[in-house]
Fold this protein.
Amino acid sequence: MAIAHNLGLPRIGLHRELKFAMEGYWQGKINQNELDKVGQAIRADNWARQIKAGHDFLSVGDFSWYDHVLDTSILLGVVPERFVQSRDEAIDINTYYRMARGRAPTGEDVFACEMTKLFNTNYHYIVPEFSEDQDFKICSNKLFAEIIEAKQLGKKIKPILLGPLSYLWLGKTKNANFDKLTLLGKLQKTYLQILTMLRQHHIEWVQIDEPILVLDLPPSWQLAFQTTYQQLQVSQLNILLTTYFGGLENNAELACQLQTAGLHIDVTHDSTPLATILQLIPEDKILSVGIIDGRNIWRADFRKILDILKPVHEQLGKRLWVGSSCSLLHCPVDLDHETKLDTEIKSWLAFSTQKLHEIALLTQALNNGESTIADVLAASDAVVQSRMQSRRIHNPTVKKRCHHLTADMTNRQHAYSDRLKAQQSLNLPLFPTTTIGSFPQTSEIRLQRQHYKVGKLGVHDYRQHMCTHIAHAIHKQLELGLDVLVHGEAERNDMVEYFGELLAGFAFTENGWVQSYGSRCVKPPIIFGDVSRLLPMTVEWITYAQSLTNKPVKGMLTGPITILCWSFVRDDQPRFETANQIALALRDEVDDLVKAGIRIIQIDEPAIREGLPLRQKYWHDYLQQAVYCFRLASSGVPDHIQIHTHMCYSEFNDIIEAIAELDADVITIETSRSDMELLNAFEKFNYPNDIGPGVYDIHSPRIPSIDEMTNLIEKAAQFIPIQRLWINPDCGLKTRAWPETELALQNMVKAAEILREKYSSSIV
Ligand code: GLN
Ligand code: ZN
């Protein structure tokens, strides 16, 4: 009999209960006991869902009070000194939250641990910090307590641990640059202790996550896998080694040969054919096939999947486990709680709860024959048909346009150096100053938007309110003396959602929350069909802003790659086909902005770096397509129109050449948080166009001094000719309040004046 299981469930709760409980606890509104109860209820609900679906194992240890990587740090006693008074101090939930947030209900604020994206997902984890003499020791009872809790349900359970090598890989070395692998010996011992304890709890199977096996691993790490799993085998526990987010490729043989009782592979990324794994897998090993996509929300095509699984089942029999590709953490909880989506769209989707059922039903079909799920199969076929034919998905005009793209659509009329002349009409000074787009989103703005959304505020009044905010932003910028202005984005709740709501082919859920980090959840739009623009999306706001001043106001758009990366994307056509459709819709918007007299248009692509494939050999392809898309959106304009782009959230050194390929006239880019580390890239590469390396971090209310900013620009001037330097913050200002924004920008404008004074004679 094949086995049905999952790699973990979302932990935020059906109605984001965990978020609200966490926040309540931080604010002192609930006590630890009450917090505990919420966690307990979420775990109980998750187990009930697995039991109802009929899974053979209940996942345990996937629940987390903030982040499972941080849980692992606590389990292993990896707590930086700044969070504890003495080494023997018990680590409680307050220490835990302090590590995550730098703040706690009691005690002084300290630097929080760093947070970063988990591989290429939108989930952020708390980065472990290792010292050179790092010790490991079991410091948390959480996992074991949850095991005891789950056991009361009388089902088989499968605890989940983040594997030692992936854990090490995800961490950073603190204060010294040493080889993290030197810690492995000690770490292995602690893992072995944990496994031994699991055995004492009569655990049969443990899931150990080693997603780094889908990366390009250095040989020393590959070797470390062999020695580590040889060691851990001593525990005599059955280890299901799980790999996900990609194919094993050159690590396939290694993963198959490791001394573990089972291996899990993610087959939703088909870079390593299942057939290869079937050849490599030893006779006595379990193979868990992750075939239900844990990172997207489409209902499974049962027939297609059964065609893949049936021969595997024939070969492996009871050695086959059927599962989710990765943890279902990256999916919303339950589709049944969507009331806003219409039944047709809903019938195309599956969230985590539905996916649990899909896994169990597929397993049942393998074990008992397809006839036992005949109605499910028929329903699945109907969905496949409907998605193939639905007029809501397929728009012949869009498809036709996408198939008739010509090379000149992705090229500006002339090269940057020639465009410069045409753009002189903008009359910009040396070191032009600008901001990234958004101005403070006050509670008044948010409330008005919300009232408009629920119908409490009519269109007319709403527009008037937004215009008042735009006028306010323009007047402030004029007062401050900025050179290139923005309208302030008051009308935008979110840079992707705003456009998604206005484009055809997008759907929005009411409750489709996915954890982004800690208590923060996002509700990604669903791109279900061909994308097209129904009406102009930004022209009205931008032209109003431009009508208030002679200085140029930037048209402000979110780029195609960022919209793609931050949405659930349809799986019935290549991702970049969807991206091209979005690009064309934006191209039309760009066109309308130009027609309306807008002279500068910014197309933000903050997510371009995070969309990179995990393995380097696929980077080129991705970047080529991403560049193509951006140029498709931006190149339809005459020479005198200045195209800007903006990037943040990542370091861009390793893709700087692709960024240059975008051929934006100006890029504003985050750099101040890393003290202009970006400039290292310019030692080897001569960035050809204008660039505004961010001179201050907008993530904190701190007001940067004039000196600080002139220094940063002077640093940049060593690599970039001053005629091509812009002065701007790192990112948009929507999370800031006006008082600090004004003071910071005042200083920024003064810094620009000082630099102009100093350098103007040197460039005549
Ligand atoms: N234009 C957007 C803003 O200023 C850019 C946001 C971003 O880069 N994340 O808010
Ligand atoms: Zn930004």
